[in-house]
Amino acid sequence: MSDMEYVGNAVYQRLHVNDHIRDLGMYIHIPFCQKRCHFCAFYLTPHREDRVQHFLSAFAQEAALYALDGTCHRFPVSTIYFGGGTPTALEPVQLTTILNRIHRYFIVDPAAEITVEADPATVSRSGLQTLRDAGVTRLSFGVQSLDKSEWQRLGRLGEMQTITRAMAYANDVGFSNVSLDVMYGLPGQTLTSWQHSLEKILELVPTHVSCYALTIEEGTKFSRDITAGRMNGHDADQETVMHEQAIAYLEQAGYHQYEVSNFAQSGWECQHNLRYWSGLDYLGLGPSAQSYVGGMRFGNIADLAGYIQCLERKQLPVDSLDTLSMADRVKERVIFGLRMNKGVPTQTFAALNNDTAWQLTVDRLMETGLLSLEREHLKATSLGRRYMDSVACQLL
Ligand code: SF4
Predict the structure, then answer these.
(1) What stretches of the chain adopt beta strand conformation (E)?
(2) What single string gives the DSSP state of each residue in 248-264?
(3) Pick from 391, 263, 267: nearest CA to 337
């Protein structure tokens, strides 16, 4: 038995016997884009119709494997999230075929939040109507910037008109929940151009806004440009100012910050992402998709050809598996939970009350103003959210 077969079987066995799973979120990785943006390190491959057809067949097999012996029929699916890649690089009817597979093999909660990430340049009114009719409830448009020169530096084709039109189509066909993603800390971006992007975003009246700092990932064009001296590295101080600018501007416009990078009008928080930060279970399907189920973290192979080959052999395409101890599960839950403004209920980590080293670390982080205890919740202060990575390392 190969390592991958062994890992796939272990995942399957654990899912089959686990009685502690209440419900599932589902992440579906669509590994296609027209071209790679200069900052992007996600697993993807250039869109080609023959590859899409092979992917769709393999995906159907993967969903069917999880349904063997009714394994996943025991857990209702509460959220579904199509990410990538660019899900809307597929035809709308191809996305609805995937959704139909999920409905065939899993029990989907009738009130499930179903999100599709979309590139505004790849949507049409009729395509969005197809998604709406298939039960998609939420769109997340990857906008990144509202400035033409910034788009060009990111290696994207962008037009304000394209975004405005995509939002109009979404409204026309009845999507009441639409998120826009923007980025700060971009090369050449200034406080003025960032403010301009934020203002343009709010003119489009989304229910939800995600503001992500640019991270320089190894293997990207940006990383190579920095190494070669063609581009400056990131300016941490400027990023902090831009983040604070976004918080102040969005909050006064009625978008409350509920997580480090996420803002929503009241009641429109992303239920799928809240699962990640709350330590709830989610299953990832598609190449490179990650899962966290019943205390196991496992990941699919990040290679379309390898993913397809596994599924042709009727094997789960899982190539990494880590089973967390109960203490590690609790620590992770705290670390992810601290990303949320509401923090983590103290009862979440009652099991660590006898872990003296951990308690001392929490005390030290509170003394240095990075964490605070309020109404039975451990929270990151605004300073703590700025240094979240360091806080997380200390708590692990
Ligand atoms: S569209 Fe999104 S997933 Fe595709 S290359 Fe650009 S950032 Fe990456």
Answers:
(1) 24-30, 32-33, 45-46, 76-84, 107-118, 138-144, 178-184, 208-213, 256-259, 262-264, 282-285, 290-293, 296-300, 318-323, 344-345, 371-374, 377-380
(2) HHHHHTT-EEEETTEEE
(3) 391
Distance spanning both ends of the chain, measured CA to CA: 34
Among candidates 332, 231, 321, 211, which has minimal Cα distance to 279? 332
The SS3 call for residue 92 is helix
What is the spatial distance between Cα 25 and Cα 78, in angstroms, rounded to a whole number? 6
Question: What Å distances lie between residue 343 and 278, 322, 346, 356, 377, CA to CA?
Answer: 10, 26, 9, 21, 6
Residue with token string 């995906």: 59
Distance 33 CA to ligand 1 centre (A): 6
10 CA to centre of ligand 1 in angstroms? 32
Pocket test for ligand 1, best of 44, 117, 122, 220 (most atoms within 8 A of CB): 44
| CA 86 – ligand 1 centroid, Å | 6
DSSP string, 145-204: -S-HHHHHHHT----HHHHHHHHHHHHHTT---EEEEEEES-TT--HHHHHHHHHHHHHT
CA 332 to ligand 1 centroid distance, Å = 28
Whole-structure pTM value: 0.94
- State whether the beta carbon of 37 lies less than 6 angstroms from ligand 1: yes
CA–CA dist 60, 72 (Å, integer): 15
Counting from 1 in the atom list of ligand 1, the atom nearest the Cα of 156 is: 6
| Chain segment 16-48, per-residue pLDDT in tens | 766 678 899 999 999 999 889 898 999 999 999
Residue 143 Cβ inside 6 Å of ligand 1? The answer reads no
Our answer on whether the CB atom of 44 is closer than 6 Å to any ligand 1 atom is yes
| Count of residues making up the chain | 396
- Predicted pLDDT of residue 20: 74
Provide the 8-state DSSP code for 346.
Answer: G
For 243-290, the pLDDT digits (tens) are: 999 999 999 999 999 999 999 999 999 999 999 999 999 999 999 999
Going along the chain from its start, the domains and CATH numbers come out as 3-278 (3.80.30.20), 344-396 (no CATH)
Establish whether residue 28 lines the binding site of ligand 1, counting it when its CB lies within 6 angstroms of any ligand atom: no
